[in-house]
Automatic annotation (TrEMBL):
One of its GO terms (cellular component) is cytoplasm. Gene3D superfamilies: Queuine tRNA-ribosyltransferase-like. This is Queuine tRNA-ribosyltransferase accessory subunit 2. Residues 21-395 form the tRNA-guanine(15) transglycosylase-like domain. It comes from Rotaria sordida. InterPro entries: QTRTD1 (IPR028592), Queuine_tRNA-ribosyltrfase (IPR050852), TGT-like_sf (IPR036511), tRNA_ribo_trans-like (IPR002616). Belongs to the queuine tRNA-ribosyltransferase family. QTRT2 subfamily. The lineage of its organism: Eukaryota, Metazoa, Spiralia, Gnathifera, Rotifera.
Amino acid sequence: MANISFKTISLSNSTTTTTNAARLGELAFSTIPKIIETPAAMLYVRSGVVPDVTYDLIPDNVTRLLEIPLGSLVESMRNLENMGSYGNFARIKYPIYCPFHDSLVELRSGGSGNIYSSVWTKSGRQELNIDRFKKLIQLIQPTIYETMFDGDTPIDKTTDKRFNKDRERSRRFLENSLNEQTISSNIIIPLVGGHDKRQRQLYLNDIHHLISNNEKKIFGISFEGFHAYGPLTENININSLKSFIEETRTKLIDYKNLLFTMPLLWRPDNVIHGIDLGFDLFSGAYVTYISDRFIILTFKYNDKISSNTIDTEYNINSKQYANGKQSLLLNCNCYSCKNYTQAYIYHLIQTKELLGRTLITIHNLYHYHAFFEQIRESLKTNTWNEYRIMILKQYSIEQQQQQQQ
């Protein structure tokens, strides 16, 4: 696996008067010359390709850290074995982050056992025992990866017995990865325990010695077990998880260069709350999710944007845009907005031309990652509080309008 490092950058107190957790960081990879700054969104990839877009059409401002869920590759194991590795199979040159579950795919209960856990794919549940998981990681050769875990802890439906199984199985899976020499580096540890604060802290206590004894192998922490992934996570209340996350960070205060992440469909207002809580790396699946529904991002991520709508987004697949002579978003510098009108993209959707989805995805990728650029800039220039208020106000106004309708 590639050599990588992560370090946090201290911020002045004036930047974080609202919270002490927001931070800047730097990801360095031996395989690429450019340092990736955090907070950052990854580039969501499914089975080797970015949905609806070829790599040469991806906007330049998009972070080149690929988020490739393990479930999207399980059914390709035979092909991977024939090619020797996933990199050879997909001809990918960028670093890969491999989460165990796919943020876009809702999970169902009952997929875990004492020696296996399951991922869900388009063709249904795929069971992974420890040996099969190790083999898949060896074939993919991800730069960073999340270990197997249980995490089957639905809110208000989990007994103490189920919590204990969750913890025991997840610890066993983690210990197996750490003890396997060929896949024991650059690990993201899943923290489990559902919405039970006591159970989450018990699990952290269970594995604390593993963290302290394997600092060179463990790269970060992923907060898991809060939800079942899928579309419902777009509207999750991040602030309801604040006490869980803050208590964990307090217990890990000595490990300043651990990267923190959480799998969600990260809507922009939730991104702001996530950064307040100290998250560094965000799933990029939100762009794929909204683009599949023909949603165009229009929220103001800086003062230079002159939107042709007062909303944070709109659906281009609406008759009102059939004769739209404007671009998807005024003054946007993405390829789609500089070259095509709303009417043309609406026409492409109506005629089911794939180019329509491509142009929508290009815009949303550009817009979403430009948002993260502005986040990092505000942290660097001590204007984070003002910036966060600007974003949250836009989503607050939209939610109030929806409630009044």
